[in-house]
Amino acid sequence: AQSVTQPDIHITVSEGASLELRCNYSYGATPYLFWYVQSPGQGLQLLLKYFSGDTLVQGIKGFEAEFKRSQSSFNLRKPSVHWSDAAEYFCAAYTIVYAGGTSYGKLTFGQGTILTVHP
Amino acid sequence: KAGVTQTPRYLIKTRGQQVTLSCSPISGHRSVSWYQQTPGQGLQFLFEYFSETQRNKGNFPGRFSGRQFSNSRSEMNVSTLELGDSALYLCASSGSVPYEQYFGPGTRLTVT
Fold first, then answer.
1. Are B88 and B56 in contact (CB under 8 A)?
2. pLDDT digits (tens, 9 = 90+) for A17-49
3. CA of A34: how far to CAs of A57, B17, B48, B57, in Å?
4. Residue of A42, A109, A111 with shortest CB distance to B105
5. Could you give the 3-state DSSP secondary structure of residue A86?
6. Do A105 and B102 touch (CB under 8 A)?
7. B residues 23-82 closer than 8 Å to A (CB)
8. Of the candidates A44, A45, A111, which has its C-beta nearest B42's C-beta?
9. Quick check: B48 and A94 CB within 8 A?
């Protein structure tokens, strides 16, 4: 079945340390891939996206992600974490579904990774 | 441009009641999608509307319904509320790039 997996439910890092959040997808073809961030009580904010081309994509707030087709992964990274980065992070995949003579898009989310930042 | 807005932000309802949530997309966006977010199930897709037509539907019971108006504003309705419907309901809109969705702040529904 098509799915997005975030293996780490909770990650704790110290402020200033580097960060890597893992994401794996299971699809027949490479989907469009996204990372979103959600602060408590808020909606989702798009951090970055990958459609095709350069496998290293830059996003907002100093985040980047690397697409690795061989590993079906799209891991999110940041070289130096700030206390304000504490939030929940979601990886998502968008695919086109063909059914009944029509097509539509579907955005599927991973379960999320909660990031805690220690001072 | 103003972002996606959702009203109300918080709601408390009693089991068996019904509720209507509203979503106003980013100006010019014609697609509106709804998601339910709970601690146990995560983010689950409810349905998508485009030009007043439901284009896609997730795996939710018929108690969950929605509609979209000619100005692209959308509403979702949940009838006969159950305790398990307590969740954050998120709305997202997209424009000419359908896979790029922008989310609103959500409506926190509590069913008692």
1. no
2. 999 999 999 877 778 999 999 998 888 999 999
3. 10, 36, 19, 21
4. A42
5. coil
6. no
7. 33, 42-43, 45, 48, 55-56
8. A111
9. no
Do B105 and A108 make contact, defined as CB atoms within 8 angstroms? no
List the structure tokens of B84. Answer: 């398990």
List pLDDT tens digits, range B41-58: 999 999 999 999 998 888
Which one of B48, B56, B104 has the shortest CB-CB distance to A43? Answer: B104
* Contact check, Cβ <8 Å, A107/B33: yes
Q: Which of B98, B99, B106 shows the shortest C-beta gap to A43? A: B106
Contacts of B100 (CB under 8 A, 6+ apart): A46, A49, B94
Which DSSP string corresponds to B1-65?
----EEE-SEEEE-TT--EEEEEEPPTT--EEEEEEEETTTEEEEEEEEETTEEEEE-S--TTEE
Show the CA angle centred on residue B30, arms to residues B29 and B35, nearest 5°.
90
Which tens digit of pLDDT belongs to each residue from B23-32?
999 999 999 9
Q: What is the DSSP letter of A98?
A: E
The predicted-structure confidence for A47-103, as pLDDT tens digits, reads as follows: 999 988 889 999 999 999 999 999 999 999 999 999 999 999 999 999 887 777 777
- List the helix and strand counts (H, then E) for chain A: 0, 12
| CA distance linking residue B94 with residue B96, whole number of Å | 7
Question: Does the distance separating the beta carbons of B48 and A104 come in below 8 Å?
Answer: yes
Q: Give the single-character DSSP code of A30.
A: P
